[in-house]
Write a structure and sequence with these properties.
Elements: H1 31-40, E1 42-46, E2 49-55, E3 60-65, H2 72-89, E4 97-103, H3 112-127
Parallel strand pairs: 3-4
Antiparallel strand pairs: 1-2, 2-4
């Protein structure tokens, strides 16, 4: 016998995901624009992760994770954590920015709150 799923209050039954997704207009797909962000923006290194930030008039993020950073499930987990930290840092920032994140090898310990704090402080320091 199959157990019935438990849905949180306020969520319509049959909803696929409860996690807030990143809007399509905030995703950066253009490789040339990503290269501009890396070349012109400020780069910060955090635990085998390179984060390039360039202030602009709207939010954008691009995440690239190299194959050498673990199995596909681990890479997907890293990508989810990076996007979640980006989503959480937006209210703490003074102005929008474009963010390009590159993971070259497997991070030792990727924490959403630490990455959120690094993103927010770096974006705010660029504006001063």
């Amino acid at each position: 016998m199959v157990e019935e799923k438990h849905w949180p209050e306020g969520v319509p039954r049959g909803a696929e995901s409860f996690r807030p997704n990143l809007p399509h207009h905030e995703r950066l797909f253009n490789w040339e624009k990503r290269t501009q962000i890396i070349n012109r923006g400020k780069t910060v290194k955090y635990d085998n992760i390179f984060i390039s930030i360039l202030p602009q008039s709207y939010w954008e993020i691009s995440v690239v994770i190299k194959r050498g950073s673990g199995k596909a499930s681990q890479r997907n987990e890293y990508k989810r954590k990076i996007k979640e930290s980006f989503r959480l840092c937006k209210p703490d920032c003074l102005s929008p920015a474009a963010v390009a994140v590159t993971v070259l090898c497997q991070p030792d310990c990727l924490k959403v709150n630490a990455l959120k704090h690094i993103l927010a402080t770096t974006i705010n320091s660029l504006l001063q």
